[in-house]
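Re: Re: ligand-bound prediction request (bumping)

Still looking for help on this. To restate: I need the protein modeled with thymidine-5'-phosphate bound, output as structure tokens. Inputs repeated here so nobody has to scroll up.
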Amino acid sequence: MNKAKFITFEGVDGAGKSTHLSWFVETLRSRGIDVLLTREPGGTPLGESLREILLHQPMHAETEALLMFAARREHVERVIKPALARGTWVISDRFSDASFAYQGGGRGVLVGKLEQLEQWTHGELQPDLTLLFDIPVEVARQRLSNNQSLDRFEQEQADFFEKVRQAYLDRRTKYPQRFALIDAAQSLEQVKASLETVIQALLP
Ligand code: TMP
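Reply:
Sorry for the wait, this slipped through. Here it is.
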């Protein structure tokens, strides 16, 4: 049996990653792969409670980082590792790269502190593949403007998202083997074609 893969989806709010995520998962399932779709912050009962707080309650940037990693620790131990151990692929809508992008890039939490938390939380586990949906910030914000109820992150200004986007691109420069960059400004069909290429490369 081939080793189960751990794949993460990342990008600024409004990049359209959630739409593509469902298609990606359904396509893998249609090819006989057992897939668990999960998300961060969230993915466990405790993680979902922390998500509510994180998305709606004002807090210090470092508190935000600590809560993101606390939710992640629970997620890794109770959901991600057990699934991978039984041969189920795990697709997570965001993981630690989001903390480096949002808390690190966006909020200015020191990268060294985030690296310590990352090491503590999942030192031995990294995604096999991270799909980074990259899009100019103006386009992403245009897409978000149709959304009626924006959370605490989505309400941030353009300069915040410019920093988030840049921090994501920096992660990709640091870990080029793990990242696949998807141009999310393309049409839905073009993005699907890029994802189809990714899937072909993943399947035995
Ligand atoms: P979502 O809207 O993609 O589900 O993500 C929820 C928000 O949480 C999104 O604006 C990004 C933010 N986030 C962080 O700031 N840090 C993190 O570590 C994660 C996982 C998400």
